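agent> fetching stored inputs for the nicotinamide-adenine-dinucleotide docking request
agent> found them:
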Amino acid sequence: MAEDLNRRNFLKAAALAAGPAIGTARGANDKINIGWIGVGTRGYAALEWLHTAAPNDVRITAICDTYQGYIARALDRMQTVWGNKPATYVDYHQLLADKSIDAVYIMTPEHLHHDMTIAALRAGKHVYIEKPLAHTIEEGFDIVNEWKKSGKIVQVGTQNRSSSLYKKAKELIGQGMVGDVHFARAFWYRNGLPNEPSWRYAIPPDANPQNTDWERFLGTAPQRDWDPHRYFQWRLYWDYSGGISTDLLVHQTDIVNFMLGKTTPRSCMSSGGIYRWTARTDDRDVPDCLSAIYDYSDKFQINYSCYLGNEYFGYGEEICGNEGTIRVMNRQDLYFEPETYNSRRPGAADRAPANIQARQAIHLNGRADFNESDGAINHFRNFIQAILGKEQVIAPPTVGQQAAISGHMATLSYKNQKKIVWDDSSDKYHFV
Ligand SMILES: NC(=O)c1ccc[n+]([C@@H]2O[C@H](COP(=O)([O-])OP(=O)(O)OC[C@H]3O[C@@H](n4cnc5c(N)ncnc54)[C@H](O)[C@@H]3O)[C@@H](O)[C@H]2O)c1
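agent> prediction call returned; pasting tokens
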């Protein structure tokens, strides 16, 4: 983990992440009590992943959500997967007031992360907070500061860091397989049928202001009348989301940083727009096409692109070294190929020096070689092991904030139509 943090932050993080974090009064057979905030798409699926990750170390004793339909659905799932019926809450403060809860999972929309994480830390809970760490750069630093004071374990949901495939890629890069690296490409391309606009997720037909707590959903976001589109499709609106930047891009700049031992970029220039999902009835704020160029202070660039209107090239990160390329595609396939210095002309001789020619091409598959569909289950296990004092979290808030800063820089550059520059010494940005 040390290489992913600058030394100053690492020393602080290491001191804070050290265990054992569970109170000593706890008996050997006691499990960690988990409170679960947000059982929507991610939160619902993840109830089962935690069972796979740590069935003997934890139990989920409480869930909280502001839509009754999702609470009912989660209770059903809990009965099937875990065999117990947790207490239920609509107000997360009430869940946090339960002193028997040791840790919380927060799987709510982005604009709620700040207040929920800070309240959870102040209530003495360990926290798993989904990415992005927070809705703004400033809010992210608030969380980092609160965490440093708290002595609690916090894992940010950038789960690629726990994927064996990406760890392998990092190892190969560290061994010098691709030589020096000054350039990486990352991309995420998706599409939907004309009647399935991107991120227009289905709104449960029964959802209404009586069974959905609109005020609690809004939190500190601007007041508005009940709007089920905003509630269930919050990713499309700036009030609650950074769109592509904080929903998708953060995963990818983060994992490039992880593979290459980098932190925050020096600058970002991004550009895009709403090009594909332009129906008159579609009131989305966030672009469906975004490209972002990041430059780092140590002669390195990430070329990022995302388009939600064609999926042909899928998802990937490509580390383009002077001596070879490592690609991780669709979080499932890792490819290494050495350079041949022949402009890839068919039949042209491999002009690489012998030491590079000797490097065998590699293909690894996440499921076949590591029995993993992605890093999420490992990431959950790492969080629980850290609470038990047996490991350190791989994505503490310092790292989650670095990931989020890249995302916010892309949003800020897009909105302001200017290049944004990050100053690591002052933790501030400016536009040029
Ligand atoms: N790590 C990943 O790969 C990954 C993947 C998907 C989503 N996510 C993240 O997970 C989070 C949730 O995303 P999602 O797709 O599940 O969204 P979602 O809209 O499906 O679920 C959000 C849930 O939060 C609930 N909620 C809203 N306000 C609340 C409040 N005040 N108190 C309690 N519950 C409240 C909603 O009712 C809903 O059930 C986001 O931060 C998202 O970025 C991460």
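agent> quick read of the result: The chain has two domains: 2-161+375-396, 164-373+406-423.
agent> awaiting further instructions
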